[in-house]
Amino acid sequence: MPPKIIKTVLPLALLFPLASMAAGEEAKPDPRKQLAFEVIDRNAQQMTDISDSLFYFGELGMQEFESTKLLQDTLTAAGFKVELGGAGMPTNFWAEYGSGQPKIAIVTEVDALPGGSQTPGTYERRPLVKDGPGHMEGHNTHGGVASMAAFAVKEAIARHNIPGTVAISFGPAEEQLASRPFLVRGGYFKDVDAVIYLHIRDALATGFGLQNYAAISSVFTFHGKTAHGANNPWDGKDAVDAVELMSIGFDKLREHLRPTYRAHRTITFGGIQPNIIPDKGQIWWFVRDASMPAAKETYDKLLKVAEGAALMTGTTWDVKYAASAWPQLANKAMAEAIQKNIDAVGMPKWTEAEQQFARDFQKAAEKPVVGLRSAPIPFGGRTQTAASNDNGDVSWVVPAAIFTFPSSVPGIEYHEWKAAVTPVSSISHKGQIVGAKVLAASIIDLLTSPELLQKARAEFEVESKKTPYFSLVPPDAKPDVELNRAEMEKYRPEMRKLYLSKAPRFN
Ligand SMILES: [Zn+2]
Questions:
Q1: Cα(175) to centroid(ligand 1), Å
Q2: Taking the alpha carbons of 338, 154, 197, 361 in that order, is the dihedral positive or negative?
Q3: Which of 118, 140, 147, 145 is nearest to 66 (CA)?
Q4: Ligand 1 centre and the CA of 179: distance in Å?
Q5: How far is the CA of 139 from the centre of ligand 1 (A)?
Q6: Rounded distance between C-alpha atoms, residue 17 and residue 467, angstroms
């Protein structure tokens, strides 16, 4: 019987681990998970108040001040120990409840994207604040789901005397890959036994294997000598020439790179006016590959290209590390445990109105008209995509699983304003509830099953040793806490008028 049907008649049946039940064995509901689910059902409104509030804050990476304050207030009131501002980032958030080992952490983020402002519920382009930032990926939902699941686990720990600690890490500026390497360097995961990486999607799913690409992001600045473009150009050293030559030089290299590589650049400073020989030129590069050693190999060649461009133009150059990310290494043993909880909890029960909205939206967006998913994604390995996520670094220092919950409309791509239509909606809210349940149940499994943790650790020891972790962060590098500040300050006064002013309290 599919769990969705069980759910409507007999809620307790949700707790039966159907997939793992031996023939003839009578499944007993796990009272710890049962308690967690009751806590989540009772606090569904508080959870979605958090997520909806974060949507209207719409804060860009490193500027998540209102978002982390709300999360700090909520989780402090709920009995968590909260640290805000660690690892040199004012919006870096870490919360914990419990004591000692095992320590299980939820890893996620709450940042929005530039230009993503959109009125929820309408798929006509209607920004809340013209040109303003907004949640066109739905990271706002991460705040609610992670806090809710952690609180539900806290209640189970307290009631059932479960040893161990549950933690949440909201890392700043995921959209610019800007914080996790600093968190790893800061030792945040040293005493963590396992992490679950949480993300919104149109599907209830986990999976295993390598996810995403390695990425290195750096800004190259050339320094020359200014001169009059007509009167004495021979006295000048053109830094923008160096930028152009670096771009052309790398294009010559492309033929000789691994077929898996990706590289893209944008010119961030290209001079002032034609008759002034520019003494400054700047170009920002992303280099990616399926593994970090491969990306690093290409990156080292890029440094040589910069050197060559400087040599040809008589300029000097420097390079500033901007960001980096390892591919995510998703643990199979943990994914199997999560999948059992996915199968037990099942997808939300969508109303016909929600399905109709999704179909109309898909039609308007010229996507396949398939409505919302009615079943979880079947278990299996996941294909590695060429995008990147800086939580990848975490997955090479501690066993890590990935988990996505169904709060988006299939076919609506992230990083477009259309993806900001549904993060505040009943579709999103229902997805958040099942997301929090699966997440809480999986953390309870990790806290209470030493065998599971051992299996996850043994697999991690083998898989992570295939590519020993090294940090891309230069020893003297500091996180870019000024990132997005000017952009955010420009729009915040208008956005502030739309804040929901909620103070959710879990009970
Ligand atoms: Zn994301």
A1: 7
A2: positive
A3: 140
A4: 13
A5: 6
A6: 35
